[in-house]
Structures are given as C-alpha cells and as structure tokens.
UniProtKB/TrEMBL annotation:
<feature type="transmembrane region" description="Helical">
    <location>
        <begin position="42"/>
        <end position="59"/>
    </location>
</feature>
<dbReference type="InterPro" id="IPR052157">
    <property type="entry name" value="BCAA_transport_permease"/>
</dbReference>
<keyword id="KW-0813">Transport</keyword>
<comment type="similarity">
    <text>Belongs to the binding-protein-dependent transport system permease family. LivHM subfamily.</text>
</comment>
<keyword id="KW-1003">Cell membrane</keyword>
<feature type="transmembrane region" description="Helical">
    <location>
        <begin position="100"/>
        <end position="118"/>
    </location>
</feature>
<feature type="transmembrane region" description="Helical">
    <location>
        <begin position="197"/>
        <end position="218"/>
    </location>
</feature>
<protein>
    <recommendedName>
        <fullName>Branched-chain amino acid ABC transporter permease</fullName>
    </recommendedName>
</protein>
<dbReference type="InterPro" id="IPR001851">
    <property type="entry name" value="ABC_transp_permease"/>
</dbReference>
<feature type="transmembrane region" description="Helical">
    <location>
        <begin position="258"/>
        <end position="281"/>
    </location>
</feature>
<keyword id="KW-0812">Transmembrane</keyword>
<feature type="transmembrane region" description="Helical">
    <location>
        <begin position="230"/>
        <end position="251"/>
    </location>
</feature>
<dbReference type="Pfam" id="PF02653">
    <property type="entry name" value="BPD_transp_2"/>
</dbReference>
<keyword id="KW-0472">Membrane</keyword>
<feature type="transmembrane region" description="Helical">
    <location>
        <begin position="6"/>
        <end position="30"/>
    </location>
</feature>
<keyword id="KW-1133">Transmembrane helix</keyword>
<keyword id="KW-0029">Amino-acid transport</keyword>
Amino acid sequence: MVDDIAVQALSGAGSGMVLFLVASGLTLIFGTLRVANFAHGSFYMLGAYLAFSVTRLFSGQPFGFWLALLLAPLAVALLGAAIQRYLLRRIAGRPHQYQLILTYAVTLILADTVKLVWGRDNHTVPRPEGLGGAIDVFGAPFPAYYLLPVGVGLAAAAALGLLLARTRFGKVVRASVADGEMLGALGVDVPRLNVRVFALGAWLAGLGGVLAAPIGSISPGMDSAIVIESFAVVIIGGVGSVAGALLGALFTGIAKSIGILFAPKLAIAFVFLALCVVLVVRPQGLLGRSA
C-alpha cells in the first residue's frame, strides 16, 4: 500500500506540474492586469490540439513532439497577445464584468473553432521516443513520461522566479502592480507591457497543454476542467504568487491522485474542501499578501 501511495503521489506531482504551468500564467495575468481570464483554459486546450496537429504532421519522426513543444506555445502566445491588444485593451478601465463577459465570449468562440477544425472526436498524442515506457519506483512501474512535466515545471518555476526578481522586465511588472499610472508617467509603455505579460501567461498555458497531451485524450471541453482547477490553485496559493501557484498545484495534483486511490468518486472534492479551508483560515492564500 505504501508503494502504491508513493507511485500515486509521483503521478500527482506530474499532473500537478502541468496544472502549475496553467495556473502560473493565470496568476501572472490576474496579478498584473487584474483580468480574471476565463479564456485561459482555452489556451491550454489549443496547446494540446496544436501538439496533436504537429505530431501528426511529422508522424514517425522522433522530433515531432519536441517541435510541438516549441511551436505550439509560441502560437498560443501570439493569439494571447492579439486578444489583449485588440480586445481587452479596448475595455481597460471599465468595470470587471466587462472583462468577464469578453473572456467568456472568447472561450465560446475558441471552443467552437476547435470543434470546427479538429472535430468532436477524441485525439491522442504519442509519447516521445525514450519516454514511452515505465521505470521502477519502489518495485512498481511508473510512467517515465511524467518525469518530463516535472522537470519542465520546476525549470519554469525557477525561470519565472528569476525573471520577476532579477530582470528589468520583472521589476517593471511589479511596479505596474503597485502603481501602473505612475509607471506610465515615468515613460514606460504600460499597454505594451500588458501585452507581453498576457502573452507570457498564454505561453505558459499552451506549454501546459502540450505536456498534458500525451497523458490523456484530447477532447472539446477539456478547457472547462482545467480553468476551474487553475482558479482553485491560484486562490489556494495566493493571487499573484508564482511560488504559491507551485505549492497549490502540487498539493492539488497529489491530493487528486491519492484521492483516486482511496475514493475515486470523491477525489476532486478533497481539492475544493482544501480550498474552502484556505478561504476561511487564510483568505489571501498560503503565500499571498493581504490587500
């Protein structure tokens, strides 16, 4: 039983890292732009579908998945930049319900676009060569592919931490959160900064979608589940905190995975029970700050 729990926990860490990539983009966008982006799950879904198309185009080639891992998130980032530049910027300063309605409308448009282009059938993406088998963990087989999202997630967490703490871009982003108007008065192009932040958040969601594609099937509607879980992770970890998103995503992934082992029908309930506890005990999240 202990071996089974260990393997499930490792599997949960793999899926939790995918969730972290999506949630970190969401918390970055919300923390900086104050936009509750309901279309964020659509970016994740598009990343998965684009990965399917690229790997299918280069079927039989060992580099197909790796090419998808490079190109699909970039395409999603460009789409995110266009949405922020040509749609969200036009309603900046208006009440938040305008943003909610607009991003929800984008979700519906992208969902229908996916059905139009790829159909309603489920699709699968083969695991890359060398990561299709299993490794031995405590005497039990463990999918080798899960090591990839764990490694990419940890690398992304470290890179985001350095980006926000040590670079000029990160300092400007943090200054924008504190006082965007003053930052603009100092000569910084705040609208352009917002486009870059939104594109980075979309890129992270697309990257998560590519990494998730070989784990399960790709289907319309996969955006809904991930965006709900991502909002839960952001709230548990603390809005605007990348470290909090990492902690919340790992907790969510491991809790779901172990919950499946003991109570499959109630696995997701443990996550939202933890969310309720955090909201009551520490409303700003585990690593968030009080307003």
